[in-house]
Design a protein that fits this description.
Strand content: 5-15%
CATH architecture: Up-down Bundle
Shape: elongated
Radius of gyration: 29 Å
Number of helices: 5
Strand order of the largest sheet: 4-3-2-1-5
Structural class: alpha+beta
Number of strands: 5
Distance between the termini: 57 Å
Length: 245
């Protein structure tokens, strides 16, 4: 049974909406101390031996939060909050901080560069969502949505790779220093699932745009050619009939 453009467009729109929902949950993680935003974070570390630090600390894109009863308790939000344990934005000390974090800007810059790429992924993703409504009924809407979804996918992959690299390295350094650290399962599961959703959305949109293109174009040209030659040959046929004895 052939699949219609409307069905493929709706599938692309469904995966687009799913990707955006997951991305927004991670993007807003830690903004409010309410479920589910207070359960989404990138890294949790036992920091009780660091002066001035809470017993457990969690990093998000907005702040460094303490942990109470398994939930994040965050203060004021700061966009593009860096992952830089010895820096003044984090603990502002080098005491009991793993040596790999000291004297380098690698973690500071990598964590902060992920923010603008995430903004770009959300920007193109939201536009792709609105154009995806046109993908259910028009070919140009399908291809436009596919283009925007591909751009969102590229930025989403860059963002996800950056935060995965920097926080996996951070987890390993803290564990090597005797401070128990673990990644935020929800945040990374959501981000990588969003990558898969964008890939599926791109495929659905492209398939929707290609449906019927070859058949309808060929049939139309065939009819136009038949009409032209039939009209050109008709007078000559009539003249032969008149000459015949």
């Amino acid at each position: 049974m052939p699949v219609s453009r409307a069905a493929l467009g709706f599938a692309g729109l469904f995966f687009t909406a799913g990707a955006l929902l997951l991305m927004w949950l991670v993007f807003l993680g830690g903004v409010r101390n309410s479920t589910p935003l207070n359960q989404i974070y990138f890294l949790q570390v036992d920091t009780g031996n660091i002066p001035g630090a809470p017993a457990q600390a969690r990093w998000t894109w907005w702040n460094l939060c303490s942990v109470e009863n398994g939930d994040s308790q965050c203060g004021s939000s700061h966009p593009d909050y860096p992952f830089d344990p010895p820096g003044h934005r984090n603990f502002d000390t080098e005491v009991n901080i793993p040596s790999a974090f000291i004297g380098t800007n690698h973690y500071f810059l990598t964590s902060r560069f992920s923010w603008p790429f995430m903004i770009m992924a959300l920007f193109f993703g939201v536009i792709s969502f609105f154009t995806g409504m046109l993908a259910m009924c028009t070919r140009i809407g399908s291809y436009l949505s596919a283009l925007l979804a591909w751009i969102a996918l590229i930025f989403q992959i860059i963002t996800t790779c950056l935060i995965t690299a920097v926080f996996v390295q951070g987890r390993n350094h803290f564990n090597s220093n005797g401070q128990r650290a673990r990644l935020g399962v929800k945040a990374f599961a959501f981000m990588w699932t969003a990558v898969v959703c964008w890939m599926l959305a791109c495929v659905m949109y492209c398939m929707g745009g290609s449906i019927g293109k070859r058949d309808r174009g060929y049939t139309g040209r065939q009819h136009r050619r038949r009409g032209f030659f039939s009209s050109a040959r008709q007078p000559s046929t009539e003249r032969k009939d008149e000459v015949a004895p």
